[in-house]
């Protein structure tokens, strides 16, 4: 076995960037959110048409997501992200889920693809919140 064999193995639950740790759950959130924001900015025209959200809306949402991803990434970069900051991320994620579903019905006029995409991305964000909450509780139990 080579000396680098373990570098390609998936993160173990005890490693810092496993999605089961606070840092890992935050990092996953930041990466996916940032990627989504970049896609919305880079492809706002075609994605706006596909989803029925409009180019301007996707540019605005893309900028918002990039800023949020940077903030979550900065929190994830800390050796031990503070509980209040993590709880704030969880709260924002849950608010995003609710607002996404409300916007789909109240403000946006999504296409069929939009009616599929909006709940799927809301479910992904809800999963981030669950991972972060679970990891925060696990960390609290281990510390005290």
């Amino acid at each position: 076995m080579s000396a680098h064999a373990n570098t390609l193995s998936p993160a173990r639950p005890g490693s810092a960037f496993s999605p089961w740790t606070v840092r890992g759950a935050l990092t996953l959130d930041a990466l996916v959110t940032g990627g989504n924001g970049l896609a919305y900015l880079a492809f706002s025209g075609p994605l706006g048409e596909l989803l029925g959200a409009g180019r301007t809306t996707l540019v605005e949402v893309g900028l918002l997501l990039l800023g949020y991803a940077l903030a979550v990434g900065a929190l994830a970069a800390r050796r031990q992200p503070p509980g209040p900051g993590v709880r704030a991320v969880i709260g924002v994620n849950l608010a995003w889920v609710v607002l996404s579903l409300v916007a789909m019905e109240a403000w946006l006029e999504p296409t069929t693809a939009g009616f599929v995409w909006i709940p799927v991305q809301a479910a992904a964000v809800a999963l981030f919140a669950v991972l972060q909450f679970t990891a925060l509780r696990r960390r609290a139990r281990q510390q005290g």
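The helical segments are 22-42, 44-51, 55-76, 83-106, 112-143. Confidence is low (pLDDT under 50) at residues 1-11.
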